[in-house]
Amino acid sequence: MAKLIEFETERLHLRRWRSMDRVPFAALNSDPAVMEYFPAALDRAASDALATHAETAITENGWGFWAAQLKSSSEFVGCVGVGVPAADLPFSPCAEIAWRLAQEYWGKGLATEAARGALRIGFESLALPEIVSFTTVRNHRSRAVMEKIGMREADETFEHPGVPEGSALREHCLYRLTREQWISCDA
Ligand SMILES: CC(C)(COP(=O)(O)OP(=O)(O)OC[C@H]1O[C@@H](n2cnc3c(N)ncnc32)[C@H](O)[C@@H]1OP(=O)(O)O)[C@@H](O)C(=O)NCCC(=O)NCCS
């Protein structure tokens, strides 16, 4: 078992998953607004499976998609972290940074704050050479986070193999950030 990495930002604690996270995680995964840019909302079983997957990766590797908790109230707000995508993507192998927050916490800069912390872990503690991020091209909220943390948009989009052919969500944009770029700008 790897050494557990957890970290704090100004307002958040990024930590391993707890069983009490599952109810609020299922609530956000069933919210059509949160899941607008995913092929489908998740039912409780699928949400729990995703939490288990994230929890297992953190237990085995020490890092992954952490549960994000507000320091001020201890409320679970969602998940943010760095992981290795299960899908075989045109730029695999890669490490991906990603985020998903409950709608009531949007627009407060929390995803950007957590993502900056996760990038720091990825580049400083894990010494990853590059971190990528991707989303369906119309997900401008998520793209704004990618841009605010200093990621650079790649020239080409790609078809995400996990999204059904013919779906308007299948075309994804890709953002990349190398360790050298991060060191030189530290966004
Ligand atoms: C994407 C997500 C994590 C952003 O969370 P957040 O905490 O609101 O993000 P932040 O507040 O840090 O930043 C959001 C930025 O997007 C901007 N934004 C919001 N709506 C936007 C839009 N339609 N177009 C462009 N930018 C937009 C905000 O203005 C903000 O930028 P600012 O701080 O410069 O004003 C959140 O919306 C979410 O969980 N969405 C559903 C899940 C998802 O799509 N995950 C990503 C899949 S790859």
In short:
The chain has 187 residues and is α+β, with helices and mostly antiparallel strands.
Report on the structure:
It is built from 5 helices and 9 strands. The chain has 187 residues and is α+β, with helices and mostly antiparallel strands. The protein has a single domain, classed as Aminopeptidase (3-Layer(aba) Sandwich), CATH 3.40.630.30. The strands form 2 sheets. A 5-stranded antiparallel beta sheet has the order 1-2-3-4-5, with helices on both faces. Strand 3 and strand 4 (76-83) form a beta hairpin. The radius of gyration is 16 Å and the shape is globular. The structure holds coenzyme A. Coenzyme A is lined by residues 34, 37, 98-101, 106-112, 135, 139-142, 144-145.
